[in-house]
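re: the backbone from monday

yeah here it is again, tokenized this time
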């Protein structure tokens, strides 16, 4: 049996979660996924909150943004997924993140997933996607 895990470190009040869902669904029509964001990306490095320098990621963690506003992230063993919203160019939020709990993932994989939930901005230069918020994730375009 596969169990689901909510990745938010602090339990949010039910009304706040409902508000996120309502806002996400009401804005979905107007906030289409930018074509240059859609596709598969491989994590190159992460910089956690308050870290002075980034950590290089030596495993092939894959993030896929789909044109329907959903995303998936393959960790060491488990698969995470959720939805993303791009209300304006350069702004992004990744919400509703859940992961399977088949086995154990590395601290790096778990930290990367947590950073997704804290992401507020994105930029793409050449084939490098930078997701930033309370930390930073750099990814390279795969497909």
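seq for it, each position gets an aa:
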């Amino acid at each position: 049996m596969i169990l689901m895990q909510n990745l938010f470190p602090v339990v949010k009040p039910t009304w706040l979660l409902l508000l996120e869902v309502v806002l996400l669904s009401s804005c979905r029509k107007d906030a289409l996924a930018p074509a240059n964001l859609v596709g598969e990306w491989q994590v190159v490095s992460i910089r956690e909150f308050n870290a002075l320098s980034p950590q290089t990621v030596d495993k092939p963690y894959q993030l896929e943004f789909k044109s329907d506003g959903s995303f998936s992230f393959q960790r060491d063993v488990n698969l995470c997924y959720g939805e993303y919203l791009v209300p304006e160019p350069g702004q992004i939020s990744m919400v509703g993140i859940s992961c399977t709990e088949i086995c154990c993932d590395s601290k790096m994989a778990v930290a990367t997933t947590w950073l997704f939930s804290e992401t507020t901005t994105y930029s793409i230069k050449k084939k490098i996607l930078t997701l930033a918020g309370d930390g930073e994730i750099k990814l390279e375009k795969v497909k």
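The chain has a mean pLDDT of 84. The radius of gyration is 15 Å.
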